[in-house]
Write a structure and sequence with these properties.
The chain is an all-alpha fold. About 70% of the residues lie in helices and about 0% in strands.
Length: about 625
């Protein structure tokens, strides 16, 4: 498209401003590993919460969410449970506090807290490093694909004119934008990332609300009536999806079939089951975990994750709903004319046609901020696992801080290159996302669930569970596709990967000795989880009768159930506002108020004072 000079000036000015801020504050974040990766654990929880939300407001995810809202309508609110989005509720209710009490730098280092320093613990340590590295590479490829697809539609320059092969305009744009973001993220570490992300989130919020308002002003409910199938506005469903686009946009039916979500009740059940297990297993070793570990104490860790829900959901879904409504109202003739429309490009397509000059520049800057926030957070989390958990622990324990920070920068560059290569070899955002959440995270679940709740689980069990799970995520999907004869929803492979991982965990644990009592007692006293800790709890209380064990399982899980409803209200309210379904929006607002009051008394008022958690 042809951008007006004003829009181009705004975009260029935005990049110069953000990169300058990132480089200016980078000196504060480069003194040692703790400051480089966790900002010295001195940043306020609300800044970390906004930063975490900004990292989640990624361009690839936003493009995918527009795609699913367009195709699935209100039923799309359940599909983000693939990640699952409600893991933030588990974190704010109890899991963040448990994790922060460990006082470590990375998820791999946490293994020493739980399993000690024996051979089994070392193997567990290495297995989580491998998972973290594979996960980061997948997330970088995901970001690469999203920003390339967005930029090639929105920006006017063409480099090769190619649409297939390695050096397409899409891939070249992605390489340029990844490189620009890397300038400050790699140099300054977490301080640079957090400060720039807070600034970017302000732009993102204004951007999101602006798009929602534009849709409200330009589109009436009557304008959409002939552009959506029956049941599109209903979030509830039966055994099957039952959305038929025939006669409206026939190619949408093919896209739904390709996603493999026709039997929606089964998909919903697996998403919820996998999501609960994943959430109880704690955060994956990525930027989300990094921000929890960067908080000043367990209380602030819980507040930080609560902040993510409050500041992220409403503006993000205001943008998603606005883009979708504009597409349904104004872009349908163009999409009907395409033999096979790329629904992942709805977002840039709408912006290129429906947003006025000047406003478009700010919106593009905001969406660039979404990409830069997510990418910077990911690239900053990656090298800790190589430098802290491999080099420092096994190769050079006495390395100087300056050397470790320098190696961290080199490791970030290496991950950048690998992520770019994987992104170039990927075709769709959805393909990367479904492998990450449908397969890889399925291999992560069992071992990381058992480590919190079962005292007998040991380092060997963790190692063999992770080997079986990650191996299953690599092997099961291609075998399943070969057997079926075509690609399908990778979520269907989760039960197989889950069972394989359980077998690895149980065999590894029951064929070896339990961890040393001193290690288990120290972990239990420090973290104080609930679960099957009876023998260790008895020993701890025999030595320290004043110790108060955690018996809050029912309370925490009840809060989680209410919190999930509260989060769904934050998701659905902006959607129904943009759709101008005022009666539904009013009911959601009332439910949001009720659940907020409940959580004020049952969660916020019961958080430990900071003085008791430092």
């Amino acid at each position: 498209m042809q951008l007006h000079a004003l829009d181009l000036g705004i975009i260029v000015g935005y990049f110069c401003l953000v990169i300058s801020i990132g480089l200016w504050v980078s000196r504060r974040g480069a003194t040692d590993l703790d400051s480089y990766f966790l900002g010295g654990r001195k940043m306020p929880w609300y800044l970390l919460g906004v930063s975490d939300a900004s990292g989640m407001f990624d361009i690839s995810g936003t493009m995918w969410l527009v795609y699913v809202l367009f195709l699935y309508g209100a039923k799309s609110i359940w599909l983000p449970w693939l990640w699952p989005t409600f893991n933030q509720i588990f974190l704010m209710m109890f899991m963040s506090a448990w994790l922060r009490r460990s006082n470590v730098l990375t998820g791999a280092e946490w293994m020493q807290t739980r399993f000690g320093r024996g051979k089994g613990a070392t193997l567990a340590h290495l297995s989580v490093v491998v998972f973290a590295l594979v996960n980061v590479i997948g997330l970088l490829a995901y970001a690469f694909k999203g920003i390339g697809k967005f930029a090639v539609v929105m920006l006017p320059w063409r480099f090769t004119g190619e649409t297939t092969g390695l050096f397409t305009d899409e891939n070249i744009y992605a390489m340029i934008l990844l490189g620009l973001t890397s300038l400050y993220a790699i140099k300054g570490g977490m301080v640079s990332v957090v400060i720039t992300e807070v600034a970017q989130f302000l732009i993102l919020t204004v951007t999101a609300l602006t798009i929602g308002v534009i849709a409200l002003v330009k589109v009436s409910p009557d304008m959409m009536a002939n552009s959506i199938p029956a049941g599109w506005m209903n979030p509830f469903f039966g055994w099957k999806l039952d959305l038929n686009w025939t006669g409206i946009l026939d190619t949408a039916n093919a896209a739904l079939h390709e996603d493999g979500n026709e039997f929606f009740m089964i998909i919903f059940g697996m998403m919820f089951f996998k999501g609960v297990l994943s959430s109880m297993a704690g955060p994956a070793p990525n930027y989300d975990m990094q921000r929890i570990l960067a908080t000043r104490n367990p209380r602030e860790a819980s507040l930080m994750n609560g902040m993510v829900n409050v500041v992220l959901m409403f503006p993000r879904y205001m943008m998603i709903a606005g883009i979708t409504v504009l597409a349904l109202a104004f872009c349908m003739p163009q999409m009907r004319a395409m033999a096979k429309p790329d629904f992942e490009k709805i977002l840039p397509l709408v912006l290129s046609q429906q947003v006025p000059t000047g406003v478009l520049g700010f919106l593009l800057a905001g969406l660039a901020a979404a990409f830069m926030s997510n990418f910077a957070a990911t690239i900053n989390a990656a090298p800790a696992y190589l430098v802290n958990d491999i080099y420092k622990r096994f190769i050079n324990p006495t390395a100087s801080s300056s050397k470790l920070v320098g190696l961290s920068r080199l490791a970030s560059l290496a991950f950048l290159v690998i992520g770019v290569v994987c992104g170039v070899l990927t075709n769709r955002i959805t393909d990367v996302m479904m492998w990450l959440v449908g397969s890889l995270y399925g291999g992560f679940v069992v071992a990381n669930l058992l480590k919190w709740y079962w005292w007998r689980f040991n380092g060997y069990g963790y190692f063999w569970g992770m080997v079986a799970g990650i191996g299953g995520a690599m092997i099961v999907p291609p075998i399943a596709e070969a057997v079926v004869g075509h690609s399908f929803n990778l979520l269907y492979t989760f039960p197989v990967i889950f069972l394989v991982s359980i077998v690895g965990c149980l065999i590894g644990t029951l064929q070896t000795q339990p961890e040393d009592d001193d290690v288990l007692k120290k972990f239990y006293k420090t973290v104080n989880p609930w679960g099957w800790w009876g023998p260790i709890r008895a020993k701890v209380m025999q030595e320290d009768p004043a110790f108060i064990p955690n018996r809050n399982a029912a309370h925490d899980l009840t809060n989680v159930a209410v919190g999930i409803v509260w989060q769904l209200c934050l998701v659905t309210l902006p959607i129904y506002i943009v759709l101008q379904q005022w009666a539904v929006a009013g009911g959601i607002l009332a439910l949001l108020a009720v659940t907020s009051v409940y959580m004020k008394f049952k969660w916020y008022d019961r958080l430990e004072p900071a003085a008791l958690t430092d």
